[in-house]
Amino acid sequence: MTRKPSPPVRRKLRTDALRNRERILEVARGAFTRKGAEASLDEIAKTAAVGPGTLYRHFPTRDALIEGVYRNEVEKLAAAASRFAETMSPIEALNAWMLLFVDHIAAKHIIAPALNSVVGGASRLYEGSRSLIQGAIDELVKRAKKSGDLRRDLDASDLLRALIGVSHVRFGPDWQQSARRLVDILIAGSRPPR
């Protein structure tokens, strides 16, 4: 009888290793934003105050680092939904998260050239993050509907599609301010009739 090999066990990172990883991701996000996919990995390591070996231990390739930066940003966005739900009213939490999503879209556009350099393309990365983002807005909308702050017939996907639509509008100097106003309009239009 042949036994299947066990999947590799992922060990939890030590506190200092986790801190190093977070610092690398933060520095890399800035470097890829400023210099694109060709940002120097040695400079990223130096700025993050870690050795090149530490960077490569966490992110063995440039693509792995770019993917790590993007996934980290998406995970922060998804986690913000729970944080907002714990500290804000349902409608305030949804509004705050939608505004954060606008900022996420703006950051994604800035780092897009680096994301497009990843083997398999950026669409592969976006696919993997879609469920996290959808789950976050689903919970916020469900909570706001339950409290009576939103129309019962509203689908969270409708709000998400509207926000994503903003990302296809040509960027101008006041793009983010316009998008933030759009969030207010979307929230107002999603309220139940009085």
Detailed description of the structure:
The chain folds into two domains: 15-60, Arc Repressor Mutant, subunit A, CATH 1.10.10; 79-190, Tetracycline Repressor, domain 2 (Orthogonal Bundle). 27% of the residues are buried. The N and C termini lie far apart (68 Å). 72% of the residues lie in helices and 0% in strands. The chain is elongated, with a radius of gyration of 19 Å. The protein is mainly α.
Give a brief outline of the structure.
With 194 residues, this protein is mainly α. The protein contains eight helices and no strands. Helix 6 packs across helix 7.
Topology:
Layout lengths: L14 H21 L5 H7 L4 H7 L3 H26 L2 H27 L5 H25 L9 H11 L8 H16 L4
Main beta sheet: none
Number of strands: 0
Any idea of the CATH class of the largest domain?
Mainly Alpha
CA-based gyration radius: 19 Å
Silhouette: elongated
CATH superfamily of the largest domain: Tetracycline Repressor, domain 2
- The helix/strand order is HHHHHHHH
- Contiguous uncertain segments of 5+ residues: none
The proportion of residues forming helix, as a percent range, comes to over 70%
Our count of helices gives: 8
Specify the structural class. Answer: mainly alpha
Distance between the termini: 68 Å
How many domains in all? 2
Q: Do you know the CATH architecture of the largest domain?
A: Orthogonal Bundle
